[in-house]
C-alpha cells in the first residue's frame, strides 16, 4: 500500500473540506487495473470512477467487485510458476487468500464506485467529459501512452477549473521497444520528467508539490530480486483552460521537376 497510501493521503489533504460542498469530489482513475485503488478512494466517501483497457484486468476486477461474498474466499498461488530467486520451496508454493477486504463493505455509500472500459484517450476526450472530474489520479499510468502529451491533454480536458492532478510512477514508456517485437510501427513519444512538467505548465497546470519516492512494483517481498522505481510523485492544479492549437496545414509538395528545352 506504499503507492496507494501516499495517493490517498494526498487526496485527503486536497479535499479536507469537501463535506461543506453539495456533493462528494469526483475522482477519475485511469489505468485502474484490478480497481483496488478505486475501492480505496470510494471508501473515503469520494465518487471514484476507474478506467481500464485490458479485458484481463476488467474480468478479474469485475469478479472481485461483484462476485465475492466473504474475505479470503479464494486461494491463489501467484509465484508457483516462477522458478527464479526463491529462497525456499515454501516461498514459491505459498498461498495467498483473496480478497483481503470485501469491496462492498469498504465503499462508503451507493453510487460512489463505477468502472468504465475502453481506451483512456478515446473515452475521455469526448465533449461530454469536459470538466467532469475534480481530480484525476494516475498511478503507474502516464508512461503507458503512445504519446504522453495526448494523455496530458485529456487529463486537462476532464478536469474542472481548479481541479487536481495527482501522479505517481516512473517513465518506463511501454511502446519504446515495440519495434523489437511488433511487425508494424507504433508511435512512441518519450519525454523526460522535466519535459513533462514543462508541458503540463504550458497546458495550464501549476505544480503544487513534488517528490521522489522509492516504490516497489509487483513485489514478492520474500524474493531475492525486487523491482524498485524512484517514482515521481506530484500534485498539480489546473489553473486555466487550455485548447490544443489548430494543426498547421502541411503545404502540398512542389510539382515534380521537369526539364524543358528551348
Descriptive notes:
The protein is α/β, with parallel strands linked by helices and 262 residues long. It has one domain: 3-Layer(aba) Sandwich (Rossmann fold), CATH 3.40.50. It contains eight helices and nine strands. The strands form two sheets. It has a seven-stranded mixed β-sheet with strand order 5-2-1-6-7-9-8, sandwiched between helices. Strand 1 (26-30), helix 2 and strand 2 (47-52) form a beta-alpha-beta unit. The longest helix has 13 residues, at 2-14. The termini are far apart. The relative contact order is 0.14.
Derived structural class: alpha/beta
CATH superfamily (homologous) name: Vaccinia Virus protein VP39
Indicate the percent of residues in helices. Answer: 25-40%
Q: What is the residue-mean pLDDT, rounded to a whole number? A: 91
Number of domains: 1
Count of distinct strands: 9
How would you sum up the major sheet? 7 strands, mixed
Which strands sit side by side, in order, in the main sheet? 5-2-1-6-7-9-8
Shape: globular
Task: Report the CATH C-level class.
Answer: Alpha Beta
Question: In the CATH hierarchy, what is the architecture at level 2?
Answer: 3-Layer(aba) Sandwich
Percent in strands: 15-25%
Amino acid at each position: 500500500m506504499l503507492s496507494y497510501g501516499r495517493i490517498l493521503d494526498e487526496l485527503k489533504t486536497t479535499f479536507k473540506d469537501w463535506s461543506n460542498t453539495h456533493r462528494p469530489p469526483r475522482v477519475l482513475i485511469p489505468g485502474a487495473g484490478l480497481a483496488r485503488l478505486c475501492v480505496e478512494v470510494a471508501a473515503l466517501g469520494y465518487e471514484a470512477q476507474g478506467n481500464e483497457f485490458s479485458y484481463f484486468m476488467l474480468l478479474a476486477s469485475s469478479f472481485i467487485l461483484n462476485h465475492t461474498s466473504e474475505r479470503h474466499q479464494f486461494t491463489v498461488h501467484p509465484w508457483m510458476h516462477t522458478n527464479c530467486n526463491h529462497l525456499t520451496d515454501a516461498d514459491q508454493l505459498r498461498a495467498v487468500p483473496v480478497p483481503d477486504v470485501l469491496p462492498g463493505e469498504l465503499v462508503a455509500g451507493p453510487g460512489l464506485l463505477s468502472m468504465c472500459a475502453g481506451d483512456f484517450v478515446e473515452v475521455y476526450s469526448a465533449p461530454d467529459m469536459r470538466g467532469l472530474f475534480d481530480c484525476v489520479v494516475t498511478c503507474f499510468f502516464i508512461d503507458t501512452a503512445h504519446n504522453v502529451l495526448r494523455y496530458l491533454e485529456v487529463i486537462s480536458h476532464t478536469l474542472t477549473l481548479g481541479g487536481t492532478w495527482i501522479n505517481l510512477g516512473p517513465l518506463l514508456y511501454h511502446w519504446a521497444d515495440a519495434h523489437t517485437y511488433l511487425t508494424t510501427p507504433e508511435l512512441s513519444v518519450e519525454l523526460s520528467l522535466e519535459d513533462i512538467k514543462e508541458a503540463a505548465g504550458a497546458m495550464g497546470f501549476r505544480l503544487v508539490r513534488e517528490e521522489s519516492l522509492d516504490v516497489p512494483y509487483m513485489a514478492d517481498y520474500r524474493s531475492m530480486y525486487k523491482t524498485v522505481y524512484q517514482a515521481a510523485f506530484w500534485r498539480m492544479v489546473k489553473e486555466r483552460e487550455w485548447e490544443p492549437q489548430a494543426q498547421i496545414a502541411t503545404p502540398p509538395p512542389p510539382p515534380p521537376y521537369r526539364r524543358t528545352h528551348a
